Amino acid sequence: MLARIAIAAFIALLLALLPGGVRADGIELAQLATRKSDDGLELSFATRFELSRAAEDALHKGVPLYFVAEATVLRNRWYWRDARAAHAERTWRLAWQSLTRQYRISTGGLHQSFATLDEALNVLRGLSAWRIAEPRDIEDSGSHYLEFSYRLDVTQLPRPMQIGLQSGFALSVEQKRNLAPDFSLK
Fold it and tell me: Residue-wise over 52-87: b if at least 16 C-beta within 10 A, else e?
């Protein structure tokens, strides 16, 4: 009897360790880079992710999905909490337009339409030359670091969907990296 329980537990453990089918538990950060220019500090990033079946179904039923990228540049201080030198946030809204049968991405006052979901997601997967700090914010000679996060914002989903369905919408990545004296990532 004890042997059967041990074998069943071992098989259950093996099944738990095997990768599942198509899962979208998170976002892989493929590339993250900063560059100091005359206009300030610019950030470029690229991610890899797929929408879960639940998120895709919600999108096709008329629920827009919001993706948020946040970048904070902090200056190290030994005597107090680290000082926030700059903070930038960008939000994209992905929606299915059933009348035109197109996907629409909106950010700020700009809108762009796409024929397929893959084309729309390719736009959402990365950004280049995003200015996250003004030149006056990063002129200090102290050491700095970057806190970056990119996520599918579940707080902007309709309230009934926020209760118990967040597991299908859990897409996020966070990274903390030190900046070199020339403000490139170490």
Answer: beebbebbeeeeebbbbbbbbbbbeeeeeebeebbe
